[in-house]
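Suppose a colleague, Dr. K., hands you the sequence of a protein chain of 472 amino acids and asks what its three-dimensional shape might be. Before reaching for any lab equipment, you can write down a predicted structure in token form. Begin with the sequence itself:
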Amino acid sequence: MMHSQKIISQLPVILVLGFFSLLTSISGSSTNLALPKISEDLKISNGQSTWIIQIGLIVATITFVLFGHLGDMISKNFVFSNGGKVFIVGSLLTGISINFPMIMFGRVIQAIGVAMIMANSLGIVSQYFPDETRGEALSIISMFISVGAISGPAIGGIILSVSSWRWIYLFNVPLGIIIIFFSRKLLPTPKVPLEQMTTILKRFNWLGQFIFSIGLTLFFLSGVYFQNGLNSLVTGIIFLVVGSVIALLAFYQDQKFHESLIAPELVKNWDYLLSIFILFLAMLVNAMSNILLPFYLQSYGQISPFISGLLLMEQSLTMLLITPIAGYITDHWDRANLSIIGLMILLISQIGYAMYPRTMNMVLIIIPIVINGIGLGLFLPPNNTITMSSVDDSLSGVAGSINSFARTLGVTIGISMASILLFVQLPKVQNITPKLGMSFLHAFDRVFYVAVAISAFSLIMVVWRKLRGKRI
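The predicted structure, expressed as tokens, is then:
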């Protein structure tokens, strides 16, 4: 009874965090659908339009840790609330863009707002919710993200059918203002004097952030060259290696700095690092299926985009049902055991994808998608709770931002890896068609054998975490 009362008493805080997560999720998931219309309206190529997505992903990823650290130094509520305002401004600029440079600038501002919001959401949960109710709080926020992922394409489709693509971004403005208005009392934002802000910013490791941004940008650009096929393989490898080395140099420089972005306590916290690494692997695996299934369903199976979209929604719908249950179990049962069960089910789903039928059998297609949703829905709440409970509350901002960073990085690498592994097996193939027959299916299966191997490794790591915890 007391447990439920604690959740209910802080429900308004969850709703503020959840609704902003919902807005950012809808905006991200509906942008894909709008690219053809944006290309036509702004008179840019389809290739150029993909950078509208890429730039947002890159900017958000490279600034997660920055804003998480600022949240710890200044105030998580301060960075989160101002992130909402930045997101609104970015959405407005994107929606009224008249050319390619302007929409790219708008997306950069919007992505900075997303990073400010997401980098501090988990930290605010740790700030307002004790360990015994944290799992349910995190699971409710995850529900909002799942709803955004589900409804984004549908909302985008409705907007595009009755109005301009611009309203995909412009509708964030009035809704965001309403959320900020109601959040003022729920998430009180301290007034930070200009002198204090200047002092804090002077202590910040701007050189480390600059080096890291360059490294990660080069790392992401490698995926563009890899996806161009074998002709650009060497260039892609150079970008990948150079970007990785520069990013590692940034980490080394940061640890030597007098006030590092990533606190040494986190670097030495093996429980925290292991949970982050397992999350990275799980999101990588999940992204592989998200990018490859449309090729199987639409390009090979000739299923309409509408039907294939409904099929892919089954994962998010399943997660929407499973996540709150997992959140409740997280707060009442062994979290390590629940995360193990979640990864076991995720592994089974990858085996199911590798055994996909040669003909479009809907039952056999849907089962692995639903199992995937169950596995991820059971894994995320306990793993997120273990992650945030393993660090001191004073570091929850940067700890939560690194969690978001690992999640986004996993998705990004998973998409690139799956695309590369598929098309490297199909040299000179520009488009997937049913005529490819078994050559496509064998390549598709082999990619998921890799996903099975990564899932199995993740499961071994989470079991080792459980056994290590018992020894300690």
